[in-house]
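Table 4 source record.
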Amino acid sequence: MDYFRPAIAASSGYLPGEQPPPGASVIKLNTNENPYPPSPKAIAVLRNLDGEWLRRYPDPYGRAFCQAVSQVLDVPTDGLILGNGSDELLTLLMRACAEGRDRAVAYPTPTYVLYPVLASFQPATVVEVPYGPDFALPVEALLRAKAALTFIATPNSPTGHTVALPSLRRLAAEAAGLVVIDEAYVDFAEISALPLVREFDNVIVLRTLSKGYGLAGLRLGFAIAQPSLSQTLFKVKDSYSMDAIALNVGAAALLDQDYKNAQAEKVKRSRSRLTTALRKLNFAVLPSQGNFVLVTPPVNSAETLYKALKQRGILVRYFNQPGLNHQLRITVGTDAQIDTLLETLSKLL
């Protein structure tokens, strides 16, 4: 007997980056976590945990957290929907909007590898459009897809580039379906597409606390959209997917913008230093607005170098897929971690 739907059985699933156990002697530069701890105010909330939070179900709308988002980003609370990380919101959008050939999913490539995996579960037709020269957004080709969902990650992973607002604005104005702008790495970038939510009723902007706020282990993200979109999306959401601890800790972290911005500036300075040093080692390094860089090694294969680094206790991300299998994505770590990485690379090369 086939226990699973054909689409599930045929899917290879999403392969996350390696996660060594806590305490392992590893320099972890493979999954784009923030190298710095979260806000002390968030830690204080966790240390003063109220047991009543655990006894009762959490607020399914996360209203206190939504108030914090509204205060920080100047957006109305009725246009917000929360998720167990922004990945849950991607799943909700696929479940709500994508199906078969008539409700396709489109995105430019290369980009976040979870998009096609989630589409395959529906299943929904996927239209992949390669980025143009200098990573110009292929607006015309994306519009021709007439997709129910068009995903644009900006800053984009794994390349690190941002998409210009005029291109996003044109896409939103002419798209047949929803335009989902994934801003997971926006805290390390110079621009945001958030103003487009106010201009268009088919734009959804996704944010997460995993990157800029140093809370990847907390699992909390949110979508910003017109209220009608958020209210409809809530129909397919698990009411209690965000726990009370995450909502309270996340609100404290979000409200501590001074701390978050200070840590983001440290990451950006380290990103610049890492880029310069890698280029001196003859790596080709794409300019990045994320907390990572995508590089092409000067000698040896990317896979060989990835394995050699792993043997020496340094994890970076190698994508064994066409178009990316000659490159490595390296998360920006602390200055000490970067020093060790560069020293090790110098010896290997």
